[in-house]
Each structure stands twice: as C-alpha cells, then as structure tokens.
Amino acid sequence: MTTEELEERKELLKKQGEKLAKADETVEESSLMDSEAEPEPKEETKAVTKYDADHLRSIANLGLEDLEETDLPLPTITLIQNNSTLVDENDNPLPRGQFYCKGTKEVSKEVNCIFLSFTKRDLPDFSHKDVLVHTWIFLGVMGKDLRPFLYYCKNTALGPAKEFLGNVKSLMLPMFAIKAKLTSEKIEGEKGTYFRVKFNTVGDIEDPEQLMMLEGLTRKYGPKLRQGQVEEKAEETVLEGVAEEIREPLSENVNSNDLPF
Q1: Pairing mode, if any, of strands 178-189 and 111-124?
Q2: I need a labelling partner for 241 at 20 to 30 A (CA). Which of 3, 42, 84, 261 fits?
Q3: What is the C-alpha separation between 154 and 239, in angstroms, rounded?
Q4: CA neighbor of 106 nearest in space, from 76, 68, 134, 136
Q5: Looking at the whole model, is its pTM more than 0.90?
C-alpha cells in the first residue's frame, strides 16, 4: 500500500469515528430528556361498592343504632280456633287446633318452649271489642333458638295456665329453668267445639350457660312485659278461647288465690 493510500484510509477511519461519537451523544441526550420529563399522571381507581345482599345485611342496623330489642312488640303465638280468620298464602284456612306464630308464619301441632315471665291485664275481647276480658300474658322463648314470643290466655285457657304455674311453684325453681311444651285438646262444650291449650312441663334445664342466658332474658324483658311495652296494640291481638265475659280484678303478680290449691 502506497503512502497516499495509507493516508486516505486513515482519513476515512477518522470520519467514521466522528460519526459514531455524534451518534452516541444523540442517544445520551435523548435518554437524559426522557429521564427529566414529568411522568404522566395515572388515572385514580375509585372503589365501587357492590350493593348485593351480603353488603346490605352487613349494614342492616345502619340508622337503628338507638333501637333496642325490647323497644319492639314481640310476636304472638295463637291457638287456632274454629272461628279463626287466619289463612295461609293461598287463602286456605289454617288447621284448627294447631299453633300459629305470627312472627314466622309457622304452624305446628306443639310448641317446645321455655317461659320466662307472666303478667295479667284486662284486654278487649277479640269478638267483642267493647268487652274487657281478664287475660294472662306469658313471655316465653322458643326451645330451639330462644326467640321470644308472647302467649295470651283468657277464659278456658286460664285453668291450664293456673295449673302450670302451680306446678312451677311446687318445683321450687324459677320458671326459666323449666322446659315446657304447649299442646292442645279438643273440647265439646255448650257453645260448640273448641280447642284448649295444655301447658306441659317436660324437664329441667341444667346447662349453666343456658341458664345464665335465660336469666338475662328474663331480667331484660320481664319488666317491659309488666309495663306493657312489648305487647301489640290491643286491637291487633288475637286472644285464644271462646268469647265469654269474665271480669276479675286486675293484678300484676301471682298470689295464692291464682293457683289451684
């Protein structure tokens, strides 16, 4: 290779080196500009509340914070009589001689329960609103889930109620410590056929935790019952038994004259 050709080759390599250097500078400047540029704002993701059944149940007490269970009237259990107007969802008469729970709409031949307290009051008769009938009101809880309820006794139901309370007194136990069962019997009377309630004692409660819970319910609802704060309005109460005029002095406590001995 001649000296002239060697010089030309050096010049060519020099120019190629300059081009590569300029290319590197361009890349560095572009990278620097990208790093200094402000990041694009990200879109904020807002949490969307799903108003499904589970969520609504979780906030069911919203707005009811000051409401207590004892502020509400308790559901009643009624013995269905021949003259009853109670019907099912298909407008068919409910079976006579069975028990109807107004709260759950359940009908059963018997009711396993525990009675906590009772009181007495003069209430309008179901058939004759202008007639006050001496009525015993029992506060109880269902045996399977301790749901509270009221049971009204008048007329022919007073005898079985008094017999039951006599048995409770003889056992020397608080009423909440005794298992009970409501059944009915068919009676042929002068005024026709009707059904009479039977109060049956079926055993004692021995579980300490359950007894503690039942005592708490008794102390919680008992005073409200005696003050008439857990009952339905008189015109909405279905009283069990046939229409008879029974007028006795109003009393708030059991005494020896109430019991059949």
Answers
A1: antiparallel
A2: 261
A3: 7
A4: 76
A5: no
How many other CB atoms are there within 10 angstroms of residue 236's CB atom? Answer: 10
Query: Per the structure block, which two tokens stand in for 29?
Result: 């400047």
Q: Is residue 74 part of a domain?
A: yes
- Count structural domains, the chain: 1
In a domain, 114, yes or no: yes
Q: What is the DSSP letter of 251?
A: -
The dihedral of CA 171, 173, 178, 181: what is its sign? Answer: positive
Nearest to 121 by CA among 136, 102, 106, 108: 136
* Three-state DSSP state, 196: strand
What range does the domain containing 183 cover?
A: 69-258
Assess if residue 53 is contained within a domain: no
CB 152 within 8 A of CB 231: no
Per-residue pLDDT, averaged over 220-241, amounts to 67
How many residues comprise the chain? 261
Q: Are 246 and 154 in contact, with CB atoms under 8 Å apart?
A: yes
pLDDT single digits (tens) 93-124: 889 999 999 888 899 999 999 999 999 999 88
Q: List, in sequence order, every residue forming a beta bridge with 118; answer none if it has no partner.
A: 138
